[in-house]
Amino acid sequence: MINSTNLIRLPIILFLTFAYHQVFAQLVNIEEQRRNIKPGLQGIIDFSFNVNQNTRFLSQFSNTISLQYTINQHTILILNDISTLKLKDQNENIDIINKNFQHIRYNYTFAKHDWSIYEVFMQRQQNKIKYIKYRFLAGTGLRFRVLNTEKAKLYLAPLCMYEHEILTDSLATQTKTFKGDFYISTNIKLNENISFSHVTYYQPAFYSFSRQGDFEPVKDFRLASETEISFDIIKDHVKFSVGLNLNYDSRPPTEIANYPLFYSLTNKLSFKF
Q1: Span 236-249, average pLDDT
Q2: In this model, does residue 227 exceed pLDDT 70?
Q3: Per residue in 112-169, pLDDT tens?
Q4: Is the distance from CB of 99 to CB of 127 less than 8 angstroms?
Q5: Would the CA dihedral through 224, 9, 265, 234 be positive or negative?
Q6: Which domain holds residue 97?
Q7: CA distances (Å), origin 102, targets 8, 27, 74, 207
Q8: How far apart (Å, rounded) are the C-alpha atoms in residues 134 and 117?
């Protein structure tokens, strides 16, 4: 098992060795998986493999598959992400840490007001290192296009959602909560081959159906931010990206209560079709 000392070291090791961004992420960045709206099927496949030998051996493989299908005013986005992290200490003890999530999102763009989009989504998630045994989300709301030019886009979305979460911490915590899901997303094309993107998610809890005694509305929240710069290798098909990711939880699991903030520097090679 991973002790507290290892949990302290791990974010630092991953940051210095450019580990993949979703190992520690509690919030999943859906914005980076969206494609430009055009009829038919589009997709993207990401592969990431990292190896590091320091005080311990660390290797990680990650794969993300994203599919988007659009017909008329309807768009469906389907995501599947799998990541496996292998840790070996000086005594040859091995930990296998799995992380995965599945996400489906439906968008309806209003014909007369194409700056507004109705969204419905569901998501299932597991993350061993964050003590997430099971997390299910279902939500809905409106997404607004504030800016839409050839070189820059800006979106705002005030959504709401239901969350059911089971943790594997010492308290075997289980919560059922009604939350807000607010985000701002921007993408700027610096030139024909380089683009900049940023997204920030804010998820405050408003009401607890499980009625745990220490629940505090609004003060219980998650915050995530991702900033990325991308370089086209083969235009419209292959790109390389570097990003900085921050994730904050005001009420993390008991085993990592003193470490509410996780961060990572990422590198990624993406194949589009």
Answers
A1: 90
A2: yes
A3: 878 899 999 999 999 887 888 999 999 999 999 999 898 999 999 999 999 999 998 8
A4: yes
A5: negative
A6: 4-272
A7: 28, 13, 20, 25
A8: 29
Least confident of 23-27, 102-106, 109-113: 23-27
Q: How many CB atoms lie within 10 A of CB 220?
A: 20
pTM of the model: 0.75
Both tokens assigned to 150? 């050839």
Strand partners, 238: 234, 271
Which pLDDT tens digit goes with each residue over 170-193? 878 889 999 999 999 999 999 999
CATH code: domain of residue 46: 2.40.160.40
Domain count, the chain: 1
What tokens does 132 get?
Answer: 């997430």
Q: Compute how many other C-beta atoms are within 10 angstroms of the C-beta atom of residue 34.
A: 18
What are the DSSP calls for 168-204, one per residue?
-STT--EEEEEEEEEEEEEEEE-SSSEEEEEEEEEEE
Q: What is the DSSP string of 22-45?
A: TSS-SS---GGG-----SEEEEEE
